[in-house]
Design a protein that fits this description.
single chain; mainly alpha; N-utilizing Substance Protein B Homolog, Chain A; NusB_RsmB_TIM44; transcription regulation; transcription antitermination; NusB-like_sf
């Protein structure tokens, strides 16, 4: 049981670090993500993350960013460039997981995104993220959601 809990904690930390890396990437103009990656890997608590999951997620989000944004557009009420970089990053990470990490239940993906937004985003940003991801999950995982 403790191992499972630690695994969840390491995954949460990985997601947080990916969001932080994407924040830096988004704010600096979406060039190479390698500078953000190097910075994140040098943070004191990086060893607490699931490094393999972090690497897979960061590279995967950046590689699929156009597809992920395309999937998000019908679910948001404004252009993606108008979202805060935190919300934008969280939505990209969650969209990636919903699309590619089918072993992670959609409710877990949404909950993790909401919790990370509560930690790093604006006051009510988590409510917005929750609503967007509910719509997105219905489209990407209709069978699992039961739509």
């Amino acid at each position: 049981m403790a191992k499972e809990s630690n695994s969840k904690s390491a995954r949460r930390r990985s997601r947080e670090l990916v969001v932080q890396g994407l924040y830096q990437w988004l704010v600096t103009g979406e060039g190479s993500v390698s500078a953000a990656d190097v910075f994140i890997r040098e943070t004191p608590d990086f060893h607490k993350a699931d490094e393999a999951y972090y690497t897979q997620m960061l590279k995967g989000v950046v590689a699929q960013v156009a597809e992920l944004r395309e999937a998000l557009v019908p679910c948001v009420d404004r252009p993606l460039v108008e979202l805060s970089p935190v919300e934008h990053g969280v939505l990209l990470v969650a969209a990636y997981e919903l699309k590619n990490e089918l072993s992670v239940p959609y409710k877990v993906v949404i909950n993790e995104a909401v919790e990370i937004t509560k930690s790093f985003g604006g006051t009510d940003g988590f409510k917005y993220v929750n609503g967007v991801l509910d719509k997105l999950a219905g489209g990407l995982r209709a069978l699992e959601v039961g739509i």
